[in-house]
Amino acid sequence: MKKNIIKLIDLEKADFEKIFKEASILKGRHKKGIIEKTLTGKTLGLIFDKPSTRTRISFETAMVQLGGVPLFINSAETQMVRNEPIRDMARVLSRYLDCIAIRTFSQDLLEEMARFSSIPIINALTDLYHPCQVLSDILTIIEHKGNYENLKITWLGDGNNVAHSWIEAASVLGLNLVLGCPNGFQPNQNILSQSQKKGTGKITVTSDPKEAVSGADVIYTDVWASMGQENEHNLRKQVFTSFQVNSNLVDMASKDVIIMHCLPAHRGEEITDEVLESSKSVVWDQAENKMHVHKAILNMLINQDKGK
Ligand code: CP
Ligand code: NVA
Question: Of 21, 88, 191, 197, which is most buried by a Cβ count within 10 Å?
Answer without folding.
Answer: 191
